[in-house]
Amino acid sequence: xxxxxxxxxxxxxxxxxxxxxxxxxxxxxxxxxxxxxxxxxxxxxxxxxxxxxxxxxxxxxxxxxxxxxxxxxxxxxxxxxxxxxxxxxxxxxxxxxxxxxxxxxxxxxxxxxxxxxxxxxxxxxxxxxxxxxxxxxxxxxxxxxxxxxxxxxxxxxxxxxxxxxxxxxxxxxxxxxxxxxxxxxxxxxxxxxxxxxxxxxxxxxxxxxxxxxxxxxxxxxxxxxxxxxxxxxxxxxxxxxxxxxxxxxxxxxxxxxxxxxxxxxxxxxxxxxxxxxxxxxxxxxxxxxxxxxxxxxxxxxxxxxxxxxxxxxxxxxxxxxxxxxxxxxxxxxxxxxxxxxxxxxxxxxxxxxxxxxxxxxxxxxxxxxxxxxxxxxxxxxxxxxxxxxxxxxxxxxxxxxxxxxxxxxxxxxxxxxxxxxxxxxxxxxxxxxxxxxxxxxxxx
Length: 444
What we know:
ten-stranded mixed sheet, single chain, 444 residues, 12 strands, Rossmann fold, two-stranded antiparallel sheet
């Protein structure tokens, strides 16, 4: 049969799903009715590096609803001289954990394409996809004491934007909590002021709730309360750095990101470094001079006119792994993520993993099939040069090594994290010959 025969072209389940997706999505009105069958998980690439392979544990997943009471509301009021209004802030958290059963099960996740309600250029279009986890499975306490890892998405994003990483780390014995940051998700995006103020506070609150609150006695009884990591992407990277001790210079943001000059007031409620945070992974973190310049904020000099001050990074005493594309137009590279790496000198190891010719999308899951009918939504996930599955595998590999080294003090992981220049020989630990291309790893 000719390879262009349409019946043969649609003979595989994934090809049929893709064709059905293109037909159905074009007919879906911008409502929150789920109209698509869940997309199946992709098979793992055969050239994945060693630590990108699943760990020894089955994976469970559950959804938690948390309430952070009496929080400042930067979206209402906050004019000069006013007391800021307050509200109870609702947060949804996806929790992955080592589980006792069901190695071949899949979990269904829900998300939407789009960028907040009422946006005609990017209306909300729901989709579902699957991942290798079991919904509400019994936890496997034998994996304890298990470090907690908090995942913080970009702006906008969702708690399942890095589901591949949550599932993977849970299979290696971690408890992984991914936050839906209210006013910052695909579904409820609002003004940037809320994200700028609440992001690090959400992270610390979730750590408090899971390690010391009511959930400690449920699925988290075997958590290690002294060993926590935060992994943040874009604005999540900003939040992770602030929670770990970086200070913010609010003057640049006044009037541009937060109305009425209110950022000064908000910054008075500063966060101290959380001593439980023993490792930070910042993927394309936002806030350096190049990032503000790209957002239309004039910067007179790198040291004085960024969201950060150089001295702010002396407060970070936890090891940090920065991950960046050197063609990132949003967070920037030179004057952006690389600048942040150069400023971070609190005494702990600081590494920079660079994906050459990658732009900003170094962290998300592969583009959902639903996005292929909408170029702007596809571009929210995809990279023009890199295969996202390959980036996912590299993230799994290096982040697994980094967390094992600094949360579990496994010195054997140093072999996987030694500095390496793109194209050098021999290949880094864990890579088959000829597969360690397109990236470099530096450390200070």
